[in-house]
Specification:
The structure is a single chain. With 243 residues, the chain is α+β, with helices and mostly antiparallel strands. Among the domains are: 53 residues, Hormone Receptor, Insulin-like Growth Factor Receptor 1, Chain A, domain 2 (Hormone Receptor, Insulin-like Growth Factor Receptor 1, Chain A domain 2), CATH 2.10.220; 37 residues, no CATH class; 52 residues, TSP-1 type 1 repeat (Single Sheet), CATH 2.20.100. The chain is built from 2 helices and 17 strands. It has a 3-stranded antiparallel beta sheet with strand order 1-2-3, with no helix packed on it. A hairpin with a 2-residue loop joins strand 4 and strand 5. The longest helix is centred in the C-terminal third of the chain and has 46 residues. The radius of gyration is 54 Å and the shape is elongated. The C terminus is likely disordered. Its main location: secreted.
Length: 243
Amino acid sequence: VHPNVSQGCQGGCATCSDYNGCLSCKPRLFFVLERIGMKQIGVCLSSCPSGYYGTRYPDINKCAKCKADCDTCFTRNFCTKCKSGFYLYSGKCLEKCPDGLEANNHTMECTSIVHCETSEWSPWSPCMKKGKTCGFKRGNEVRVREIVQHPSARGNPCPATSESRKCIVQRKRCQKEGKGKKNREDKRKKSNKDESKETRQESKGRAARRQNREQRENNNKTQPKKRKAPNKEQDLVPVDTAH
């Protein structure tokens, strides 16, 4: 072993030197060179830093640099995130997206163009005028539809979501809402009052009849039966006044 090579290293190094840092790594760790000033220091990491990708070999695992326009990559030819000013598409970093695709400035990727989609029209509403369905002959009716898919930046914009057209109906007079409501309330209260009154009268009548019947029965039980008085006219003896 070279005098400058040490076996008792720190930080995951298998072998190291005072000048160059790690020279080899422990199993499963990646060896990468970090530049400090004018020199490079070897370090051992569990995963490669941003801008590098890992390669495994039988003797050593190394971290290699991604392409200059790539921020993170899976291999040198397959980028997973681009640097500022570039858009990711199929593992490549492009300054301009291909035809049929658009640049997404939020994800910095080339994505498919999305056009607006709407639902079917609803049925036409009743013919109305100033929010009422009575008191007029000519009014308007409307129908609506909903947006089910909003468009992307370069997609087709959404059409109108409501339509209106003229309509003609047979004129009918509007009932005054307050008066009609009050009349209905009064009729309901009167009906309930009459029903309650009849119910109370029937209850009182039944109670009075029951009380009279009970009183007659009590009188019959407490009073003794009257004996029939003798007929005085039958007991008189006729007197012969001829003599």
